[in-house]
Amino acid sequence: MFAEYKNTLRKMRGTIIGWSISLFLYDWMMSSFYKSIGELADQMNTLLSSYPKELMAFFPIEEFGSPVGYIDTYFSSYMTIIIGIFAVGACAKLLVGDEENGILDLLIAHPISRTKFFWGRFLAFLSATVLILIVSWLGWLIPAESAGFELSAFDFLLIMFPLLGVLIFFGSVALFLSMVMPAARLASGLAGALLVGNFLLIGMSNLNEGLKPVFEKTPLYFYQGAKIINDPNWGWFFGLLGVSLVIVLLAWITFQKRDIRVGGEAGWQINLPFVKKSAN
Questions:
Q1: Is residue 264 helix, strand or coil?
Q2: Who contacts 145 (Cβ-Cβ below 8 Å, separation ≥6)?
């Protein structure tokens, strides 16, 4: 399992480096801007208050001039979507990508169980995600003192935990969908649509009270972002990890039982009454 873990991380190194550098530069830039933007907080709040409420419903601007409000506005509020692209895409292709390329059957033929193969790859995804978020944390932390942030290194680290929980959850969903859908692209597309839909529901529920009961049943309802600094909700975080674990276990069980095709896309791996299952 450790050999597969190392091999998967090695194959993901380009993705890890690319995402890490991009987030580090963005975080450094936004952290450096804090002092100048903070001095104009009143003017910025006046300007933002003139924007249509339909637009502002999607972005937290209540405490724009504070460190927590600033980070929430420029990082936490939409990084679930941006870094979610990595999580969903990586997990959708984590196993099925090699299957569609016609090499998974050859890899499974080696003296390694499917269980070790599965968990080695999934743990590599978790490590890649954590590494990217650590670099992002450094992007905020390094210029923080000169930028005037009155936050500790631990405060900046806390901000990454809600984001980590969301990435693991939707990555797990993409992994499970890749086990039961005909192609990795479909699994990635559906998981991505669920993530984007949940994000849009945040703003829509602020505009339509009737949608709040629906939003309250979604993963992002308890997402705290930078607000975790002031009032941590660890029950939500560990609860989301627990649900993610259940989804990953379902993906693992499905991977144990499914036939491995020699290449290309396939039919549905579950019996649906309205979908004809194609032969592998």
A1: coil
A2: none
pLDDT at 61 over 70: no
The share of the chain scoring above pLDDT 70, in percent, equals: 84
In whole angstroms, what separates CA 261 from the centre of its chain? 29
Which of 15-19, 32-36, 61-65 reaches the highest mean pLDDT? 15-19
Q: Report pLDDT digits (tens) over 172-197.
A: 999 999 999 988 899 999 999 999 99
- DSSP character string of 159-222: HHHHHHHHHHHHHHHHHHHHHHSS-HHHHHHHHHHHHHHHHHHHHHHHH-GGGHHHHTTSGGGG
**DSSP state for residue 279 in the 8-state scheme:** P
Q: Any idea which residue has 């968990």 for tokens?
A: 119
How far is 224 from 78, CA to CA, in rounded Å?
12
25 to each of 21, 139, 143, how far by Cα in Å? 6, 7, 11
